[in-house]
Prior knowledge:
Layout: H1 2-19, E1 24-30, H2 42-49, E2 58-61, H3 69-80, E3 84-88, H4 90-99, E4 105-109, E5 128-133, H5 137-150, E6 155-161, H6 170-184, E7 187-193, H7 199-208, E8 213-216, H8 227-239, E9 244-245, E10 254-258, H9 260-275, E11 286-288, E12 291-296, H10 297-302, H11 309-314, E13 317-319
Parallel strand pairs: 1-2, 1-3, 3-4, 4-5, 5-11, 6-7, 6-8, 8-9, 12-13
Antiparallel strand pairs: 10-12
Helix pairs in contact: 2-9, 3-4, 5-6
Amino acid sequence: MLAALGAGALAAPIMASAQQQKLYRIGFVGADYATEPQKGDVFVLELAKQGFVVGANLAIESRGLQKDGLDGVAGALAALKVDVIYAAGTEAALAAKRATSSIPIVFMSADPVGFGLVSSLARPGGNLTGVSIQGPSITSKEMEAMLAALGTLRSLAYIYPIGARSLPWYSSYVSAATSAARTLGVQIEFHEVAGFAAYEPLIQDLARRKIEAAELMPGTAAFTLTNLEYEQIATLFLRSRLPAIGPARLGFLLHCEFAEDVLTQRIGYFVARILHGAKPAELPVEEFSTLRLILNARTARALGITLPRSLLIRAEEVIQ
């Protein structure tokens, strides 16, 4: 009887402790909600490895895009007083920074020092830290890959959505493209499109003027193409016999991408460090530049392009 009472007395504090276990909340801010953390992805798995399990002691909060955009999302999460904000992208990080100076923010961003997110990579200061992605380097790598695919490349047109010119990443993207074009001897031009219907006449005009290749620049919170629209635009390029840089899995000839599984794993690591008590100001920003080349051999064949073996060897994925 005493043994039973002893066991019961011992079990009671354990049960009470389990019931009182703190629930940590992560707020997600991002222009592209396809990147929102989901059960089973590497971000969530990394947190679980560090002791934070969704549905047990962890919840991930997201609010969708508010009528006032990313500022609305960040403001709503700040009002919830979440434990950490995960900001996927420079615009999201800037919105989160405007929303709170006290809640820790972990970001992925191109040039976080240049955009004023942190004072330096080694000593972030304030309530932000995270991963610096070398975003503009993508366009130079893609231009090099297109040159390798075609053998020669004299002209390339960049197509960007309306509103992109006012966004933080635009000037650095243009600067990187201009520098790469100068090095490779490529003439480049930039075209703004106001909506999906504007792509077809523009692509036809580029083909008529014998522009040799094109690239779709990133979307924005206000104008992001769906997968179906990407596939339709890839078909338009194919009909005009114009090689294009864009989502290769959706029919474009090629694109480069960050190793997103590794990138989001690193974000999960930073978030876990902060949930364990680390201060953002004391966590140096990590530089990330691991790129993967994706080729679409089926599109290449349709365009009459023979992809060189040297390029195929470099590719992380070749779609047949």
